[in-house]
Amino acid sequence: MLVNTHILKLALVILTLFSIQTQAQVKTWTLQECLDTALVQNKNIQMAKNQGEIALLKNREAKAQLLPKLFLQGDYRYFTELPFQLMPQSAFGGPEGVFREIQFGVPHNISANLTFKMPLYDAQVMGGIKASETYQELTFLQEGKTKEQVYLEVSNLYYNAQILKNKLAFIQKNLTNSRKLEKNTRLLYEQTLAQRTDWDKVLLQNQQLESAVLQAESQYETVLKALKFVMGLPLNGKMDIPLTIGSNESEVWTTEKTLDELIQEKQQQISQQELTTLRNSRIPSLALYGNYGRTGFGFTGNPESFLNFYPVSFIGLQLNVPVFNGTVTNKKISQKKIDLQNNQLQQELIIQQTDMLHQNALLQRQVAKSQLQTSQQQIQLAESVYQRTLLQQQEGLASLTEVLLADNALRDAQQLYLNAMVEYLKANLDIKKTSGNLLN
Question: 371-392 pLDDT, tens per residue?
Answer without folding.
Answer: 999 999 999 999 999 888 888 8
